[in-house]
Amino acid sequence: MGASTSTELIQIAQIPFALLAITGLDGILWPTQTLLKDDAIYDYIVVGAGSAGCVVARRLAEDGNNSVLVLEAGDDPPITAMIAGVFDLLPGSYVDYNYTSTRDEYAARSQNNYTMITAGKMLGGSDSLNHFIHTRGTEYDYNCWAKMTNDDSWRYENVLPYFKKSERVDDPEILQAYGEYHGINGPMGITRQLENDTVSDLLKAFAEAGNPSVLDLNANVYIGYTQPQYMFADRKRQTPAYTYLKPIKDYSNLHVSKNTRVTKIIFEGKVAVGVEAMYKGKTYRFRAAKEVIVCAGVYNTPQLLMLSGIGHRKHLKSFNIDLIQDLPVGDNLVDQVAVTIVHKLKKYPIPIPAIPSDLTKIPFPILIGSAALNKTKQIPEYQTFNIFLAHDLPYLTIACAQVFGLRNEICDRWQKQVESRDSLYTILTILQPKSRGRVRLASSNPYDDPIITTGFFDKDEDLMNMLKYVKDFISVGETEYFREIGAGVVGLDLEECADKEAGSDEFWICYVLNHASSPYHQTSTCPMGRVVDSQLLVNGVEKLRVVDASVMPRIPRAAPNAAVIMLAEKASDMIKNANQ
């Protein structure tokens, strides 16, 4: 099956789920649409119901003492957001903002010079359409936050209770070995897949290549390969919308308005007093008695702040936006740029294509690896997500073309060269890149997409490091297991790199630049210390707080979603303590 055909089939498959959402049959899980009244007053207004917004709304509303208005631009999640086996139907669908980066002929060659950027537009946000792998990073990441913000409350030992508060880990082996690092009573179920022979063989191969097998990368060991922990339990994805918002959907003090675009934060002087929003073509104004809390995400939070007069003076002036506070909003965009590598594995007789037998299960084994070039180091430099794809399932082209948006010719080349073979689809990410992108306004119209510049490989150091990481990773091909089954990297016959000597550094640099994409791990467009303080209050104004990945002063050495949930748990306590 070619990549273009796979994409068309995915688009067709999205239709019944969209129709299900339209009928409202899946809406019984979620809060009903609140009756909006212009100039209504609430204690708290939460802008955005992504991971952070769902957590904050739950914690502020659960005691029943505060009225909380949640405004979400998207709608209820489709049923597919709960089903592990069809997570790949969601990117590129109606629940995705479907952003693209500015034109980049250097680092976006794999995607026709535009990087596809997935961002969730529904209750639960991007966590309702991501890969639901639960990774925290290292203690050094959060100790660094504390140092950068001059606030020890961000040290690892002080944020660990908030990681634990969110979790309901159901894994006796992990709890016996590392129970002090995990929670068992939180809203969000965390589990692992059962190990099978293939996983065992792959773990042995990576160990032979110098990468030890470990049980838990979310405890006090940060280097090694393991089966990841998933935000998945009871045969359902554990999105914050499902685990945090759904249980309080009938609370009388929780008010949720969907398909509602917040267009502006309202200020009286330097005090945020409410928001302006559009719902069904009508403009509403809502007032916050205590705080406005922006949880709109790495792209939409800076866009809203800038539309409201908080940002670079010169940039806002170019759109005739009155300045409230001159701050470096939208700078410092970080993403753990990814490169995809595909290995062919064991060969089979010509297979009969199959479909997954149980869509409520995670559809394929995954190994996650955190590694460093110096095998004696304890802090990882790069991370790999290694997806084992059975020879009789069509997931390779779906992952390649639909989830990561690579060009059809790349996906077709890989699919052809792994025909009748199992394959290992690897996404290799730089954990803490030096390059930075930015987010800017396209206009003063809140419905115009922001201008996103990824900045991938803006610093040569990142490109040189990615070269080293790719070469380090593919050394697994020299192990006994990979040699026995005739495994090898496929897709190396690149027309774009034909003038480079095979296996040379020049060739692999060319490969990297032609296979780079976003893993959707973006952070830091409104970071602590520059745009907000260590309490997440926007500098220079009052009663306005930001709670989402944009406030991270540095990206953790992990996919950032677990850190976002931790941050939102911690912020909820900050907010309640400040408004007693």
TrEMBL record:
Obligatory cofactor(s): FAD
Source superkingdom: Eukaryota
Glucose-methanol-choline oxidoreductase N-terminal domain segment(s): 42-337
Membrane-spanning segments: none
GO molecular function, one term: oxidoreductase activity, acting on CH-OH group of donors
Family, as annotated: Belongs to the GMC oxidoreductase family.
PANTHER family for this protein: CHOLINE DEHYDROGENASE, MITOCHONDRIAL, GLUCOSE-METHANOL-CHOLINE GMC OXIDOREDUCTASE
Protein name as catalogued: Uncharacterized protein
